[in-house]
Design goal:
Layout (H helix, E strand, L loop, with lengths): L1 H5 L2 H17 L3 H16 L2 H16 L5 H11 L1 H35 L3 H12 L1 H9 L6 H9 L5 H24 L4 H6 L6 H42 L12
Length: about 250
């Protein structure tokens, strides 16, 4: 995806604006008022409130909105346990929406620009054969921008079931942490503004996130390098074993 975008500066600029749009929108008074109304509806409408939350979160996935505010919102409305139970499948749903858009919008664009690149081809084999582990490791690494990972993954041959399961398992710990943070916020306005109530658990969780990022990046890098090296070595060995085709011609006349 990055190779393709660096060859198209306008596409890169468009992607940057696309990613910034949700953060800018969340600062607008009209959007904040809509979120306050959503919170009140979720609190008073039971299952219909959950359905609306799923719908809004799914639409957020389509526009690459960050996931953390949605998890915090669920924790504030429903508490840490029920909030996590609601936010976890919603996060997978939002990621699936983005994945579907990536498969229909981005994949062909990227493929035309990286076709024949041996490293990209090897990466495709890795994600096709070990997609569940690769997605799980990526989702477990908080430093990776999770709102755009779904679009990037869609440009690879990873199977959807591996993507969805890896996403759900990988995001579950951070989703539970965000739901807890939401449960200790005192007001809906603080949720909308992105404020957090400091606590010992929140501070410890932040340290854990930093450690998880370092460990996750290291694990991902080691896993990817090892598997890519294996795949490239297998390809080279296959080329050496393949008999060279030597055209022969019979004399005529």
């Amino acid at each position: 995806m990055w190779i393709a975008l660096t060859r198209r500066p306008l596409a890169t600029l468009g992607l940057a604006l696309f990613l910034l749009a949700p953060f800018i929108a969340l600062r607008q008074p009209a959007v904040q008022a809509a979120l306050l109304a959503l919170i009140e509806y979720m609190r008073s409408s039971g299952a219909r409130g959950v359905a609306l939350y799923l719908l809004v979160y799914g639409l957020g996935g389509a526009v690459a909105a960050p996931k953390a505010p949605f998890h915090v919102l669920a924790g504030f409305v429903y508490g840490p346990i029920v909030g996590a139970l609601v936010a976890s499948p919603a996060g997978t749903l939002a990621a699936s929406v983005a994945f579907g858009l990536g498969r229909t919008v981005l994949q062909n664009v990227v493929r035309r620009r990286v076709e024949g690149n041996p490293t990209w081809d090897a990466l495709g084999e890795l994600l096709r054969d070990d997609g569940l582990r690769a997605v799980w490791l990526a989702r477990m690494t908080p430093v990776i921008p999770q709102n755009i990972f779904s679009f990037a993954a869609a440009t690879t041959p990873v199977r959807y079931r591996h993507f969805a399961l890896g996403t759900w398992l990988g995001l579950l710990p951070i989703t539970c942490f965000h739901a807890y943070l939401g449960s200790i916020i005192q007001s809906a306005a603080a949720v909308v503004r992105g404020e957090q109530t400091p606590s010992v658990a929140a501070k410890v969780g932040s340290v854990v996130i930093v450690i998880a990022s370092v460990v996750g990046v290291g694990a991902m890098t080691r896993f990817a390098k090892k598997r890519l090296a294996e795949i490239l070595a297998q390809r080279e060995a296959a080329k050496e074993r393949a008999p060279e085709a030597t055209p022969t011609s019979e004399p005529t006349g």
